[in-house]
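Model: Ready when you are.
Researcher: Fold this.
Model:
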Amino acid sequence: MKSFHSSRFVPTRTGTSRAGSLGEEQLRRRFERVLLRLGERGTELAKRAFQTYYRVWGSRGGEISERWAAFQSDRIFHYPASRLADLHCASGGSTWAYLFEWTPPLVGSRLGACHGLDLPFVFGTLGHPLLRPVAGFTRGAYRLSRRMQQAWIGFARTASPAHGELPAWPAYTLERRSTMALGREDTLRDDPHERARGFWGEVIPNAKIPWAPAELPDGAAA
């Protein structure tokens, strides 16, 4: 907590990307591999996780692989980012949050809005030859890139990412947890990581994330 209090005068913007053949029993074992690192509570928490992630956001709904992706995304990215925003906001710092949701048209059903996909949008490198064949960037993607660059530059200059080409973007507060969802259509959402906070906030309230390799062959020793 000391580090958050000592940096409360530094405006903070935090954000994550929305995540990108698995059986029911394999999914249960994967939950257990992660949560058993918490000790004897692990088995019961794995059961709760199975129910919590029975339905997840997205067009694929409750598909098993999507449930695993949602679990890992909440554990590794969404909950820590949400916790950081909460702590910085509570210490009096100016805080802004975003959620990157753009998915590639060519491989979107498999890749999703994966970790790191927002970087070429921020740095304006969508035309890189290594990216174009995979992601198939469109005119809409270039427009999103310009909107994001304006937001990042504005934040660096004025400590606010809000600008005229985005919907009204208020600062993050503990009451609303306002988050700008950036994608084909930009929308402001309140508390999009409620599920992550509801489950992981009780499991790891001090934000010490239990580690397990993201991908292990089923049946392999962790």
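Researcher: Now this one.
Model:
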Amino acid sequence: MAIHTELSPTEAADRLALRELFDAYAHCADRRDAEGQKALFTDDTRFAVYMEGEGTEPTYVLQGREALTPVFDDLNRYEVTTHFNGQSTVNIDGDRATGESYTIAHHVLSEDGKRKIMVASLRYLDTFPTLVLRRARPDPRLERDAGARHGQGELMAQQLSFARDIRPLFRDRDIQSMQYAFDLASYDDVRAHAEPIYAVLAAGQMPCDGAWPEEDVQRFRSWLDTGALP
């Protein structure tokens, strides 16, 4: 963490402008202002998305501001979104800067007559090639790497719970076949082994006599992502 013994008015203005840039991205996203989002990036921007997290190959890489159009237009398939920005850090080096920031994004949609919500936990690694706050242009521009993890479930008045929503998904034969490893009827056991259980469910390897329907797999994932309540 940087220690600031003294912050000049110029650096303070730079840091404020970069935070406003971060917030402007979320603001434009929730208002479906694709052109406004694009305007926040450099003409030759590099936009990389890592769906599997840090240390993996990018899921896709877009080059140039205009290549971002379909990404931002894709938000139109949701009825409403809310991007909640959390902590962010910025390192300024001369007229360049880098940043790391976090966002929780909620996406509401309807499928087959059911209202659902997809929650994405996002980590952005940004590069601000030129700080021009006190030069010709009034604001900076950015390049961005984004890491995402998604969960999806039905939009309900209450969060998903193990007793009501998850335990009924495990049949007696499933519980018996896994007794050697853990008890699928036990909240504590399922919570402790939740990620490995999800991995085999998502891969269609459990139960052994046939994969779960996709909506049940997503329900399990949503239960995890919304707190794994008992």
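Researcher: Key takeaway?
Model: The radius of gyration is 22 Å.
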